[in-house]
Each structure stands twice: as structure tokens, then as C-alpha cells.
Amino acid sequence: MTTRPLLATRGLAVTIAGHRVCSGLDLTVGPGECWAILGRNGAGKTTLLHTLAGLRAPTSGAIELDGRPLASLPRREVARLRGVLPQDDSDVFPATVLETVLVGRHPHLSRWQWEGENDIRIAREALSAADMGGTEARNVRTLSGGERRRVALAALLAQQPRLFLLDEPSSHLDLSHQLALLDRLVSVVRVERSALVMAVHDVNLAPAARPWPGPCPLC
């Protein structure tokens, strides 16, 4: 029995401002797999990750999510299937930590549905996994950079996507939290048979994942 890949690219080419990020990239990411996009600052890792997430169109080629063309999927279904951790976290509106993490549950709710007890339970478990238990009543604007990063990771865990796309996930985190949270994400991927692709410039974080294959100038 063949397992359907969670993410696949066919002849993918990505360029930005005349810079070639990748060309002719064929990749298959299956359940339980973790991949790392390694590259120096400014190489285009974020651009490539945003393209894989469907946040920008590729120059050419195709991207499939869970065996279907990414461009043809409804946005809500895309949000259920893939979760994105951006490089920087910003809080436009004041909110509590719990309210912020509950945003990760929105793709699983209908248009006018409020979060229920199960959603709150999932959010609290995610906060605990991110070592932010007991902070749910705090305003996110009072958090340190490292605390805010862990809240963002908790929101991603609460989203429960099939595919995790992480941009510099260790940003703002001290070493102990870097290792603990990456271990947690890798464990989730292995147990839930989801998948993870992360963009990093620190080669010390790469052993948690497989290196991104060529041809790609980021490697």
C-alpha cells in the first residue's frame, strides 16, 4: 500500500527580485518525516517556505498538499492541513495568552462557532507542552520575546495540522527551550504521522530533521 505524501513539489521554481531560490525541485515529504532547509541569511529560505505554504505563487511548477493541488484547495481546508510558524511574532491587538493560542483552533470551527471545552483543553495542553502553563491569563504584550515565541508554538500545536512549516523555530529561545520544543515537535510528527519542514541557518538544529535535497542553492 502506497502512503500518500503530505507535501510534494514537481519541477518547482521560486525566484524573488531576480534571485533564483530553487529550480526544478522535485520533493516528496511523507508522514512521519522531518526536513530542514539549510541556508545562510538572505538565501531565500523564508520565500521558499512561504511558497510551500501557499502564501505566494511559485514562478513555475506545482505544489501538492495531501495529494491534491495546493492552489485548488479552499483556504479553510489549507489551514486545517498545514500550519505555519513565521519568523517573527507580532501582536496587533491585546489578548490573553489563552485567547492567542485558541486562534489555532479556528480552522476547525464553523463560521459562527465559538471555541468549546475540547478546544480549550487542547489549547491548555499545547501551552503546557510549550512550557507556558499557568500563563493563560497574561496579556501577550507583557511577554518576553522567548515567551511570545513559545506561545506561537503552542498555537501551532493547538492547530493540529498535518504539515508543520516552521521559519527559524528557535528564534528568541534559549538553548534549553530550543532543544525541548524541537524534540516535542518531532515527537508529535512521529506519533501523529504528520510532517515537518523547517527553515534554519543553524546547522546544530538540523540533526532533528533530514537535509533538504538538491538541486537547490540553499543546501
Please, how many domains?
1
Parts with pLDDT < 50 across at least 5 consecutive residues: 211-219
List the strand order in the largest sheet.
6-7-8-3-9
The CATH superfamily name is: P-loop containing nucleotide triphosphate hydrolases
Share of residues in strands: 15-25%
Q: Multimeric state of these chains?
A: single chain
The CATH architecture can be named as: 3-Layer(aba) Sandwich
In CATH, the topology is named: Rossmann fold
Would you state the CATH class? Alpha Beta
Quick overview:
With 219 residues, the protein is an alpha/beta fold. It contains six helices and nine strands; from the N terminus they run E-E-E-H-E-E-H-E-H-H-H-E-H-E-E.
Could you characterize the architecture of this molecule?
- With 219 residues, this protein is an alpha/beta fold.
- The protein has a single domain (7-211), classed as 3-Layer(aba) Sandwich (Rossmann fold).
- The chain is built from 6 helices and 9 strands.
- It has helices spanning 45-53, 75-81, 97-102, 117-129, 145-159, 175-192, and strands at residues 7-16, 19-29, 34-38, 60-65, 68-69, 82-85, 163-167, 195-200, 210-211.
- The strands form 2 sheets. Strands 6-7-8-3-9 form a 5-stranded parallel β-sheet, with helices on both faces.
- Strand 7, helix 6 and strand 8 (195-200) form a beta-alpha-beta unit.
Could you outline the blueprint of secondary structure elements for this entry?
Blueprint: E1 7-16, E2 19-29, E3 34-38, H1 45-53, E4 60-65, E5 68-69, H2 75-81, E6 82-85, H3 97-102, H4 117-129, H5 145-159, E7 163-167, H6 175-192, E8 195-200, E9 210-211
Parallel strand pairs: 3-8, 3-9, 6-7, 7-8
Antiparallel strand pairs: 1-2, 1-4, 4-5
Helix pairs in contact: 4-5
